[in-house]
Amino acid sequence: MMEMVLMKTKTVSEELGVNPTTVQRWVRHFNIQCDKNEHGHYLFRQDDIDQLREIKAQLDNGLLMSDIQVQSMQSTEQSMELPIQFEDKFNRLNAAIEALEKKVEEKADGVVSYQMLQHATELEELIKKMENMEARLQDIEVALLKQDYPEERLYVKEKSKKNWFVSLFTL
Predict the structure, then answer these.
(1) What share of the chain is helix, strand, coil (3-state, %, to 5)?
(2) 105-159 confidence digits (pLDDT tens)
(3) Residue 38 pLDDT more than 70?
(4) What residues have CB less than 8 Å from 43, skipping those under 6 apart?
(5) How would you class 32 by CB atoms within 10 Å of its CB: exposed for 0-12, middle for 13-18, buried for 19 or more?
(6) pLDDT tens across 63-80, in order?
(7) 3-state DSSP of 97-160
(8) 27 in the Ramachandran plot: left (φ > 0), alpha (ψ -120 to 50) or beta?
């Protein structure tokens, strides 16, 4: 396999005779699939540079950017393939994410266990308080039953007897 030479934006812009920001604008506008380095800077393969040359030639011939037709010069196999450095980074990141997920899960389990112990302690305290209240209630009932109550009298107001003779004249 032939080693691929990757060029930075500044080098490509000098080769094409345009400003580096122009090259970046063309990449975004025409959706050219370039690799990027760890800092997010574009890295151009020879196919990418050929596409940019074609774009420049069409612009030099008077076409507008919206009228330019760019054919992808990359093979589908090449565009689907991730460079090894990105694959390694992906695998490291994936392993780090899995390790973090495991730590979060363990921490969550610990928090739930602690909360369950706290709830159990609170329930035990409530049960003791209820038992104390029941005991006090029983003591009060016993004390009430031991007290001697005099016979309760019903205080009912007796109706005054009216004279039957007077009741004849009143309604």
Answers:
(1) 65, 5, 30
(2) 999 888 988 999 999 999 999 999 999 999 999 999 888 888 865 555 545 555 6
(3) yes
(4) 6, 7, 8, 34, 35, 36, 37
(5) buried
(6) 888 888 776 544 444 445
(7) HHHHHHHHHHHHHHHHHHHHHHHHHHHHHHHHHHHHHHHHHHHHHHHHHHCCCCCCCCCCCCCC
(8) alpha
